Amino acid sequence: MRESVHQVKRVLVIDDEEGMRATLAANLELEGYEAVEARDGVHALELARQQTFTLVISDVRMPGLNGVETFRELKRIQPELTVVLMTAFALEKLIEEAIEEGVYTVIYKPFSMDHLARIVARAVDSPAVLVVDDMPTVADSIVAVLRAAGLSAHAVHDGRAAVRYVIERGADVCVLDLVMPDQDGVTTCAQMRRLEKRVTVIAMTGHSVPEMVNAIMSKGGYTCLRKPFDALELIHTIARARGDAAALLSVPPARA
User: How far apart (Å, rounded) are the C-alpha atoms in residues 15 and 116?
Assistant: First the structure.
């Protein structure tokens, strides 16, 4: 029987370059994780059938199975697995497909180990998207789209409920409506940003409220999307926010 991922924070590192693979594994172990190395996609699938992993970090360009193909096969073996891809190449169709199928984020080489540590800390902690909109049909429809893309997503319908959700259950990204009764998005964002486990906030609005947009950005908001927005635009924005070092600067890496 596989042990619970809540008991062991085990990270699978997949890269055909031995030096890169060993460096990543060594740094992850310094952060308190158990790191397991796989030399290619086939090896990774063998390991995934034998052990449970909290997170996978995989290179995209590899001989045999590439990183995206490996990601797809890994998700069949362990559907709840969180996967981060690494690449030295500009965004290409293959990577776009992976993002739209639920990859946590894409890290572009070269990157610092500090950057990686911040992403890993968030990815193994609460890799979920919280959607907040006072119109339940809007919030629920966004959640349905995100789940269909392979992302963990949940909805609440007011600002206070959103803050409680983050405290009690956790989320690393919040898609937050700006204009809501009782407690608006700006106030909700400010409260979330004061929490120990801070959340990356992607604002959204169907109103012309430049003052509120400026206010939420000044309080640490990542960006603001104008309703109605394309579902793929949101999915790509979430992946980009998760991999953006600037959005993570105020979040200290949490040791396992």
Answer: 15
